[in-house]
UniProtKB/TrEMBL annotation:
The keyword NAD does not apply. InterPro entries: Ribo_uL30_ferredoxin-like_sf, Ribosomal_uL30_bac-type, Ribosomal_uL30_ferredoxin-like. One of its GO terms (biological process) is translation. SUPFAM superfamilies: Ribosomal protein L30p/L7e (SSF55129). It comes from the Bacteria. This is Large ribosomal subunit protein uL30. GO terms for cellular component: cytosolic large ribosomal subunit. Belongs to the universal ribosomal protein uL30 family. The keyword Ribosomal protein applies. Part of the 50S ribosomal subunit. It holds the Pfam family Ribosomal_L30. Residues 5-53 form the Large ribosomal subunit protein uL30-like ferredoxin-like fold domain. It comes from Hymenobacter setariae.
Length: 59
């Protein structure tokens, strides 16, 4: 499967708890932190739920 790199570009402060936990589950803690994941349906669903906070790049 292809891989994607996600970068947290907007803060999760003042977001619903569900979105905060989704960002944390993606392995993103601080602003501008990055994580690489396989592009499987579960990860893509999490990325889609918080896409307004992320920058996604295909590798």
């Amino acid at each position: 499967m292809p891989q994607i790199q996600v970068k947290l570009v907007r803060s999760a402060i003042d977001r619903p708890e569900r979105q905060k936990r989704t960002v944390q589950a993606l392995g993103l803690n601080k602003l501008n932190s990055t994580a690489t994941h396989e592009a499987n349906p579960s990860v893509l669903g999490m990325v889609n739920a918080v896409k307004h906070l992320l920058e996604v790049t295909e590798l």
